[in-house]
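Mods, move this if it's the wrong board.
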Amino acid sequence: MPHSEQAAGERFVPLATAALDLHRALAVPDGPLVADATELDNLHAHAVALLFLLDSHAESAGPVRELAAPLRAARIRAWQLAERLHHAAHATPYPPATGRRSLCQRHQAAVRLIRRRTTPADLRT
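Not the wrong board. Structure tokens:
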């Protein structure tokens, strides 16, 4: 990178840092950021729905390589999100009246899909 481009980029670092600090002050509440089991379950449902949506588009765009590659990459990211939310949901206490069955059944459907469509090497990217 030429010196002038690097210097120009470095001038924006304090501005970007200030913007992030302002966002954090306005949008992030004080105290720990904790989601309860219901919120995590809902987020997981959305992540899995996104995974299936991206999968359907990635498969239909298969013949057009330029379209399929970004959709497949997004599908992997959606899977990684669902996986992390699933683990987080298991780390939070659930109310006795509700179970984790629907969460785990939904996650197993996502696991079956991702195992059919990807390799373990794909998931490590």
